[in-house]
Amino acid sequence: LTITVDGLAKLLGVPNDHMLRKMRFIGMNKLANDYLLSNEEAADIALTYGVVPVIPEESGPELYPRPAPDDMSKHPLRPPVITIMGHVDHGKTTLLDTLRSSSITAGEAGGITQHIGAFSVLMKGGQNITFLDTPGHAAFSAMRARGANATDIVVLVVAADDGVMPQTKEAIQHAQDAGVPIIVAINKCDKSGVDPSLIQEELLQHGIQTENMGGDVQAVEISALKGDGVDELAENIATLAEVLDLRAEVDIPAEASVIESQVEKGRGNTASVLVKRGMLKVGDIIAAGTTWCKVRSMADDRGKPVVSAGPATAVKIMGWKEIPQAGDLVLQAKTEAQVKDVIANRIAKRKKREQLDSIEAVNEKRREIHRPAVQPGTTDVSDSVEIPVIPIIVKGDVSGTVEAVVDALQKIPDQKIKTSIISTGVGPVTASDVDMAKTADKCAIIAFNSKADKKIQGLAKRSNVEIMSFRIIYKLLEDVESLLLSHLPPIT
Ligand code: GDP
C-alpha cells in the first residue's frame, strides 16, 4: 500500500507545495509530486496536518474458511449438534450418561466410552445426533465468544422439583443470543409430588412458550435417572433437526472447531474437534489458533481409530505441535510450508497486538492519573497528586537477571512512581526495543548486564529514549528508583 506525494495532498485536501514544505520541514527528501511514500511516511505527514491515519494491518499468509455454497440443498444432510444446558443439579450429566449408554447398546459391543467432548447417538430410525458433553455454559460461551457457533439445538434441562433457576435463565439468554432453538426437557418427573405443567407456566414468564402454552417450543417430560422419556426427547431432537434441514458439504477440505485439548501421557498433544464441513483425514495438515498439526491419528468417541471424519462428528486428533484452545477454528492447509508461514504470521501479529495493547494500557493509565480528580461540586484540583507512570522495557543478559529486575521494579512503592513493564527480553538492546520505547510515551529501557552498541545508543538518543545500564544487582531497587525519578523528563 503506497501513495504518491500528489495523491496524499489530494487525500488531505491541502495544496501540494504546502505539503512539500512541511515534508522538508520534517526532514523528508522525497520532494517531488510523483514520489511514492511508504505507509510510515504518509502517516507522519498526515499527523502534521492533525489527521490521525489508520494504517491497515497487512494480513500476511492466512487461511480462510470457504464461502458458503449458493445452493445448500445439493449437499447431504448432517447430524444435528446438541448442547445440554440448565441449572446445576438439574440433571445434565445424568441425561448425557443415559443418552451415551443408550448409544453404546445401539452401537457395537465392547466399545469403551471416551470423553472427547462430544458423542454420537444412533437413533432407531437410523439418524445420528451429536451431543456436546461438556456440561455447563462455559464451553458454549467460550466457543461462541470465538465465533464458533457449533450448536444447532439447545436442550434446556429444568428439574421439575426446582423450576426455573438463575442458570436456567442464563441458558435461555445464551440460546436466544445465539439464535439457537430450544427443546425443554423437564427432568426428575419420576419424583413424587412434582407438577411438570407448573414448569411450563414458569418458563412462559421467561419467554419460553411451550406447545402446551400455545407456543412452538417442544417440552418433554423425562427422568434422566430412570430413562423415561429420553427416547421421546431424542425423537423430538431428530424431528426438529429435520425441520432445520441441516446440511454440509463433504467433498471439501475440512473446517472444524476445537472442543477441548490436553496433553496426554503417551499421546502427546491432543485436541478434540467437531467437524463443521468437509472431510478431515489422517495426514491432513491443519491449523488452529497459533498451532498446527499434521494429523497423525484420530479416534472417535469410543476410542476407536478412524481415518476420516465428516460434518457434525467429533474426533480426537493426535499430532499437534502445541495444544490449541477450545473454540479455535481449525482450517486445512495445502502444505507444511504453508501452514508454518500462516502460524508464524499469526504469532507475529499476536505479539504486535499485545505490544500495542500494553502500550495503549500504559498511555491510558497515564491519562487517568493526569486527569485532575475533581470532587463533586467543586472545581478545585490543587489536591490531586500526580504520580508518574513510567513504561519500562527490561533487557538482561540471562532470564534470571530479567526476572530480578522485574521483581525489583515491582517493589518500588507506588506512591513515588509507578512503573509498567511493557516488554522484557534476554539479549542486547535492539532497534525494535528503541522503536517500541518511542511509541510508548516517555518509556525507558533498563538494560541489566546487557549492552547497547553505539548504533543503538545513537538511535536511542535521536529517538529521545533513555537507556539505563546496570551491572550490579545489589541496590538495584534504589538505583532504579532514583534514576527513574531523576532522569525522566517531567511529565507535562
Ligand atoms: P447436573 O449438575 O445438571 O449435571 O446434574 P446431575 O446430573 O449431576 O444430577 C444432580 C442430581 O440429581 C444427582 O444426584 C442425580 O442423581 C439426580 N438426578 C438427575 N436426574 C434425575 C432424575 O431424573 N430423577 C431423579 N430422581 N434424580 C435425578
Essential attributes:
initiation factor, binds guanosine-5'-diphosphate, 21 strands, translation initiation factor activity, 6-stranded antiparallel beta barrel, mitochondrion, elongated, 492 residues, GTP binding, GTPase activity, 6-stranded mixed sheet, alpha/beta
Low-confidence stretches: 378-384
Helix content: 25-40%
The count of β-strands is: 21
Distance between the termini: 36 Å
- Cross-sheet strand order for the largest sheet: 4-5-3-6-7-8
What characteristic shape results from the CA principal axes?
A: elongated
User: What does the radius of gyration come to?
Assistant: 30 Å
Bound molecules: guanosine-5'-diphosphate
Largest sheet: 6 strands, mixed
Number of helices: 13
The chain-level mean pLDDT equals 83
Strand content: 15-25%
- The helix-and-strand class reads alpha/beta
Main location: mitochondrion
GO molecular function: GTP binding; GTPase activity; translation initiation factor activity
Keywords: GTP-binding, Initiation factor, Mitochondrion, Nucleotide-binding, Protein biosynthesis, Transit peptide
Subcellular location: Mitochondrion
